[in-house]
């Protein structure tokens, strides 16, 4: 006889929809080699994460790690809503300076321990053994991992400045393991813009912090454009 537990499990599985439980939060953009001042300590790196699921998720206690160490956990009640992008910055940078360079309209979360003796910083010389960036839950479980690189299928990192970001068709924790699903940010494309030269940032930096464009977004945009065209005609 199948007990009630199986029934509950079955309902839970059906209820999750297209995105598997625990697989919702995706690393979508990495600014590992900015043109901005990057001498120790590098304050101008950042990472964007995105909720592709259908439920809000608490980020309290989550942290970043790489092959050299880890940051301190996010403290306090920080929620990420479905289809929301959140930006993580080094704890020695201020949200005010980040916003002066990159603008408003999304959550920016400073993380202590981005530098020695924690994460050390995001390596500018990634390889198959370095640049192993992970986003982890309070338990230490890996929510997402990206072993970014600057060779092979991965976008190059010369000249310094543009971030790498995940393309619209590939916004999930498996597709972002493949370098061919990433591109270098270009101003005007998929929400990317130049940084304003303020607070130690260099305007050669290009990125789309706080903006993630999915295939669904592109479809809605197209339908909106068609609607406008009909309305005007
Ligand atoms: Ca770096
Ligand atoms: Ca991954
Ligand atoms: Ca982005």
Automatic annotation (TrEMBL):
<feature type="domain" description="LTD">
    <location>
        <begin position="12"/>
        <end position="150"/>
    </location>
</feature>
<feature type="region of interest" description="Disordered">
    <location>
        <begin position="143"/>
        <end position="233"/>
    </location>
</feature>
<protein>
    <submittedName>
        <fullName>Lamin tail domain-containing protein</fullName>
    </submittedName>
</protein>
<feature type="compositionally biased region" description="Polar residues">
    <location>
        <begin position="172"/>
        <end position="184"/>
    </location>
</feature>
<dbReference type="InterPro" id="IPR001322">
    <property type="entry name" value="Lamin_tail_dom"/>
</dbReference>
<feature type="compositionally biased region" description="Basic and acidic residues">
    <location>
        <begin position="195"/>
        <end position="205"/>
    </location>
</feature>
<dbReference type="Pfam" id="PF00932">
    <property type="entry name" value="LTD"/>
</dbReference>
<dbReference type="InterPro" id="IPR036415">
    <property type="entry name" value="Lamin_tail_dom_sf"/>
</dbReference>
């Amino acid at each position: 006889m199948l007990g009630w537990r199986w029934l509950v499990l079955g309902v839970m599985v059906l209820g999750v929809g297209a995105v598997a439980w625990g697989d919702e939060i995706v690393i979508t953009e990495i600014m590992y080699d900015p043109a901005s001042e990057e001498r120790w300590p590098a304050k101008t790196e950042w990472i964007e994460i995105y909720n592709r699921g259908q439920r809000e998720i608490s980020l309290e206690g989550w942290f970043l790690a790489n092959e050299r160490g880890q940051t301190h956990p996010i403290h306090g009640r920080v929620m990420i809503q479905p289809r929301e992008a959140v930006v993580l910055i080094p704890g020695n940078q201020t949200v005010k300076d980040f916003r002066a360079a990159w603008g408003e309209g999304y959550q920016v979360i400073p993380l202590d321990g981005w530098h020695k003796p924690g994460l050390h910083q995001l390596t500018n010389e990634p390889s198959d053994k370095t640049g192993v960036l992970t986003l982890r839950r309070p338990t230490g479980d890996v929510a997402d991992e990206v072993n970014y690189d600057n060779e092979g299928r991965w976008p190059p990192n010369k000249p310094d400045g543009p971030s790498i970001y995940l393309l619209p068709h590939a916004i999930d924790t498996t597709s972002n393991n493949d370098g061919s699903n990433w591109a270098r940010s270009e101003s005007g494309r998929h929400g990317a813009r130049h940084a304003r030269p303020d607070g130690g940032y260099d305007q050669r930096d290009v990125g789309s912090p706080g903006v993630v464009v999915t295939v669904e977004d592109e479809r809605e945009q197209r339908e909106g454009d068609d609607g406008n065209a009909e309305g005007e005609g």
